[in-house]
Amino acid sequence: MNDGYKTDLITNDVNPWCILETIKLSVNNNIKEFPFQFKIISSLKYLNLMNNNITEEFQNKVLSFPSIENIYLDNNRISCELCIPESVKIFSVNNKKFNSIPKKNANYCLETLTLHGNNFNGGIFNNLTQFKELNSLDLSYNK
């Protein structure tokens, strides 16, 4: 899927045998719900949903994406606790309303976490210690 294509509805009829590794629906400005139906694409590694109007809470369902490595959700209107799948290496959620990351005993692969312009405060540092592979962190413009 291409950045030049505009859509406001993503079908639930997703083929689990498709071999897509990359889905880019950025700068769409019409998507209002997180496309959890993509989780059945076992080859999906890169998901870019930047600059849309996703407003629903970011649910634990995102944890069921089997091989996702890169998620970009910058400039949407999602708010709640930030759930990060274990397989993700790069997670970018700039300019949102996230305010916490759950502490879990998980084997995370996260290397880059960009949380610019959210509602995190100093308490986030206790939960960041669970990301043993983290080598790049942006917490600028938070509380």
Automatic annotation (TrEMBL):
<keyword id="KW-0732">Signal</keyword>
<dbReference type="Pfam" id="PF00560">
    <property type="entry name" value="LRR_1"/>
</dbReference>
<keyword id="KW-0812">Transmembrane</keyword>
<keyword id="KW-0325">Glycoprotein</keyword>
<dbReference type="InterPro" id="IPR001611">
    <property type="entry name" value="Leu-rich_rpt"/>
</dbReference>
<keyword id="KW-0675">Receptor</keyword>
<keyword id="KW-0433">Leucine-rich repeat</keyword>
<keyword id="KW-0677">Repeat</keyword>
<dbReference type="InterPro" id="IPR032675">
    <property type="entry name" value="LRR_dom_sf"/>
</dbReference>
<keyword id="KW-1133">Transmembrane helix</keyword>
<keyword id="KW-0472">Membrane</keyword>
<dbReference type="GO" id="GO:0016020">
    <property type="term" value="C:membrane"/>
</dbReference>
<protein>
    <recommendedName>
        <fullName>L domain-like protein</fullName>
    </recommendedName>
</protein>
